[in-house]
Every structure is written in structure tokens, then in C-alpha cells.
Amino acid sequence: MATIFSPSALFSSSSSSTTPPKPPLPPPLTKPQQLIIPPSKPPLTNLTTTLTAAAAAATILTTTLPSLADSPANYQIYYGTAASAANYGGYGGNSSKKDSAEYIYDVPDGWKERLVSKVEKGTNGTDSEFYNPKKKSEKEYLTYLSGFRQLAPKDAVLNNLALSDVNLQDLIGSAENVTSEETKDEKGQVYYVYEIDGVVAHSLISVTCANNKLYAHFVNAPTPEWNRDQDMLRHLHDFPDSLLEPDTVGTSKNE
């Protein structure tokens, strides 16, 4: 631009030769662009498999597996003699002879027998008791009272049982629901069956009369243990079909 508008250029003769224009400069060389190839994505199937395996591992690590001791598969049959307090000669409950037993019930493997004193036997009629050593209030026991030839009405029987059992009184008093029904075993023996759903505990009770005695079998558990062991506790309540058939049942039973 400076060459075109200079004075010497404007007043020069027309005969003078013109300077040929300089050829245009070539554009500056640019660096060749580098082709960037994105990394290939892993196959979707492999990614899905990896995530699934990781989720499964996390589930195994975070899930608490149930203890075999908490949910026993094996049970032992207890043979009870229902001996009077005067004739109560010892504590060897498991040494009861099958031929002298008046009642039977199932006990989970690992549960311990609580030794019942003569005084307790004579006051509230407790004849035998077993408990879970991990939670002693999760237990089963049997009481009996002499002088009963037949069952009174269901409500009267439950109230009479509570008279000699303070814990049962408290459970009934705070219960959210109490159910009762009358059933019979294959031989026609009549049973009253109670279920008490309390705020802090649960109880299953079976009651029947025989041999001029009233037998009551209890299965009790605090609410957390009931929620965890309900199937096992119902098994204790339901087996055997009759409390009074020791001669028709073997010495042990696997569920």
C-alpha cells in the first residue's frame, strides 16, 4: 500500500517502465493435524458381567448369614414325668425314662435345661424348662396342676394359669392380640391353644387335661427373637400333635 501512494509514483512519466508486481507469498506452512483415535469402549457384555460380579460380592460381604445355632434343624424329645414335689427326687430331666413319662415335647439342639426347684414345682407347678443360652427369655416349659378332670371354659383356664405366673399376667395385660381355639388330636384328646401377641414378647400355649391333671406347655420369646425364630418356635408348639403320647414317638426327630 505504501508503494502505490508514494509521490514518485504519481508524477512519473507514462513512458517509464512499470515494475512488475511481486508474486504473492505462499501461505505459511501449517503443522499437519494429528489424527486422534478415541480408545475403544469395552464390550457391553463384559462391563455388565463385571458390575454384576461386583454387586454380588458386595451383597455377600454385607449380608449377615444366619447362624446354624440360631436356627437349629435338629431336635431332641424330652420325656417328662410330672412327679409331685414330694416325690421330686432329682434334677436329671433328660434322664426321664420313656416308660414312666406322662408327657413329651421337642427341644432344639443347643438349648439348656433350667433346674426347677422343689419349691417352685410346688407353688406354680413348673415341671420342666429349657431355654436358649443366647437369650434366656426365649424358652419353653411345662406346668401341671393336679385335681382337674376336665377343661373349664377357655377364658377361665387362661386366667387361672396367669394367677400363678406373674410374667404371663404382664404379657396378657399388655397384649395387642390374644387368640384361643379348641382342637383335638387323632385320639380325640381335647386341647386349648392360645397365642398371645404382646408388645415386648410372644407366647404360644397348649393346655389339656388327663390323669386328673391339667398340663400346660408354653413357648415364649421376646419380640426380636420371635421375629427371627418364629418357624422354629412354632415347631416346638406344634410337635408333637399330642403332649400325652410318649409311647408313639421316637427318641429324636430331625425336621
UniProtKB/TrEMBL annotation:
GO terms for molecular function: calcium ion binding. Signal peptide: none annotated. SUPFAM superfamilies: Mog1p/PsbP-like. GO terms for cellular component: extrinsic component of membrane; photosystem II oxygen evolving complex. Residues 101-235 form the PsbP C-terminal domain. Residues 1-43 are annotated as: Disordered. It comes from the Eukaryota. InterPro entries: Mog1/PsbP_a/b/a-sand, PsbP_C. Residues 20-30 have a biased composition (Pro residues). Residues 1-19, 31-43 have a biased composition (Low complexity). This is PsbP C-terminal domain-containing protein. It comes from Nyssa sinensis. The lineage of its organism: Eukaryota, Viridiplantae, Streptophyta, Embryophyta, Tracheophyta.
